[in-house]
Amino acid sequence: MERLQKVMANSGVASRRKSEELIQEGRVTVNGKKITELGVKVGRHDDIEVDGVPIYQEQPVYYAFYKPKNVISAVSDDKDRQVVTDYFYGVPERIFPVGRLDYDTTGLLLMTNDGEFSNMLTHPKHKIDKVYVAKVKGVVNNDSLKPLRKGIVIDGRKTAPAKFKILSVDHVKGTSIVELIIHEGRNHQVKKMFEAVGYPVLKLKREKVGSIDLLGLQPGDFRELTKKEISQLFVLASTDK
Ligand code: URA
Questions:
Q1: Model confidence pLDDT, tens digit, residues 102-157
Q2: Are 193 and 88 part of one and the same domain?
Q3: pLDDT digit string (tens) for 190-201?
């Protein structure tokens, strides 16, 4: 459920501010009932009319996108850099990224126009696993990475325990490849966690979010999630762990 004025604005009927005015002026009905208060929430199946004219609510869409490097996880950029929605040319729905990957991080980003879905997936209490593969500077070992398992303090707050697996080490180049699984989504979290144990991240890719992975996608590609995948994510996000 979302606020009426937000749904109106999303449908393109008016700005959020103007939609609030329309509501307060008594020009909006939901399922035939006049609404004049601003707190009302509506769902996809509610019939909304403005001055007796139905507004069109977009149907929800869900995509898995392989974000390439040097693309911003946003729908617009004031410096005119490439943004993730540039790759969705021809998709009419107003989609946005679920959470964020850094400019230089590649990998799986879910995209949707469903605000509720996005809130569910990004809320830390739902503990959806995200799998990252990082190339780090330095030769790691199980002991030196152990603090990641316990949780470490970054920005004054302890992270939840993470799981890691060392995939390879290159003694000649002095680098390592490590898989890290976390369920929080704090700013630059993976980079800060590795930095905290003494291994700066050189390259970062997200391989998986919940049950969704990058299989069959190349950087810049996207695909619609199947009904099964969408319901799996809803189940994951609504189950308290
Ligand atoms: N953690 C990071 O540090 N960067 C990302 O892009 C995602 C998680």
A1: 999 999 999 999 888 998 899 878 889 999 999 999 999 999 999 999 999 999 99
A2: no
A3: 999 999 999 999
Residues 164 and 215 in one domain: no
85: Cβ below 6 Å to ligand 1? no
- At 129 the three-state DSSP class reads coil
Rounded to whole angstroms, how far apart are CA atoms 138 and 155?
Answer: 23
Domain that includes residue 36, residue range = 2-54
Average pLDDT score over the chain: 94
- Tell me the C-alpha distance between 239 and 108, whole Å: 22
- Cα 101 to Cα 32, 97, 116, 192: the distances in Å are 42, 9, 20, 14
Residue 71 dihedral angles phi and psi, to the nearest 5°: -135, 140
Residue 74: burial class (beta carbons within 10 Å; 0-12, 13-18, 19+): middle
What's the CATH number where 101 sits?
Answer: 3.30.70.580
Ligand 1, from 69, 105, 110, 199: best to mutate by most atoms within 8 Å of Cβ? Answer: 105
Residues 83 and 120 in one domain: yes
Same domain, 180 and 133: yes
Model pTM score: 0.86
Give how far Cα 112 sits from Cα of 4, 38, 161, 213, Å: 19, 25, 29, 16
Atom of ligand 1 nearest to the CA of 193: 3
Are residues 162 and 217 both part of a single domain? no
CATH number of domain containing 21: 3.10.290.10
